[in-house]
Amino acid sequence: MTDITAGSDPTIGTAGPGPTTGTPGDLAGRTALVTGASRGIGYAIAAELLARGAAVTITARKPDELSAAVDTLVTDAAGGDKDRVLGLPGNAGDPDSRAEVVARTVETFGSLGILINNAGINPVYGPLMNADLDAVRKIFDVNVVAALGYLQLAHQAWMGEHGGAVVNIASVGGLRSTGVIAAYGASKAALIRLTEELAAELGPGIRVNAVAPAVVKTRFATALYEADEEGVAAAYPMKRLGTPEDVASVVGFLVSDAASWVTGETIRIDGGALASGKLG
To answer: 92-114 as b/e, with b when 16 or more CB fall inside 10 Å?
Structure first.
């Protein structure tokens, strides 16, 4: 596996949005690993953590997009500090890739106290009765098993001795049936349940929480809103879709000391969709 550091030539124009506003410096001296972070929610989370002072490893499958993300993060979130950003191409569903990402992160930064399990896939839409079972297995392997695998490795490499904070990126589809993304929703329900089990098992040294976004304006979720974004947004009490920064700011809080008594929690970030009885 080849690492990607600042200075490599980006092959896409913009990797994603800039950093959100956190508490400057409150994560200084800590190291985070964010999976699936070349764009969208993962990228915004990486930017948030960097803006708050952490060193961050990002990983994703496509080296070109990852390279562009690293360069943009260094410029926009890390204040030009190349030494705080590391990009490692890899597939979350591959055990060897996970092991190398964790090992290289600890080798580079000397610690790994924050893990954000953001990598996820959804190749199956529609009713479960029509779902290809091999695709369903792949969804669970990447969305659930890989999250546990990453935490096992982080626990062995650093967190087990020193403690840390974990946030799993779930979905409101894991809290209520959608009929549209049924297999994906079932995997996210499993991830939410896994979060609770891990919180009970790993406290007090390691806190494990989850966030459950509704529709967020990312390339990953395009199919859920591109045909009628205004109509989809109208179903939300906040009358807009989510942004990656909406999720990133909550994640930043959860991994900070301000959330030191919060574990086993899943926070909905849904613009009020579930409160209104609607799931956009």
So the answer is: bbbeebbbbbbebbbebbebbbb
Strands 85-89 and 114-117: unpaired
Return d(Cα 122, Cα 211) in angstroms, integer. Answer: 18
Strand 114-117 with 206-213, pairing: unpaired
The pTM of the whole model exceeds 0.85: yes
Catalytic (active site) residue 225: no
Instruction: Answer whether CATH 3.10.580.10 is correct for domain 31-214+242-269.
Output: no
pLDDT by residue (tens digit) across 193-205?
999 999 999 999 9
Note whether 20 and 51 are within 8 A (CB): yes
Choose, from 43, 150, 184, 236, the residue flagged as catalytic.
184
What's the sign of the alpha-carbon dihedral 64, 12, 214, 256? positive
Spans of all domains in the chain = 31-214+242-269
Q: Pick from 125, 1, 152: which is nearest to 63 by CA? A: 1
Closest CA to 192 of 214, 212, 165: 212
Each residue's pLDDT tens digit, 122-140: 998 888 998 999 999 999 9
Contacts 24+ apart (CB under 8 A), 270-273: 270/172, 270/212, 270/213, 270/214, 270/236, 270/242, 271/214, 271/236, 271/237, 271/238, 271/239, 271/240, 271/241, 271/242, 272/236, 272/237, 272/238, 273/172, 273/214, 273/235, 273/236, 273/237
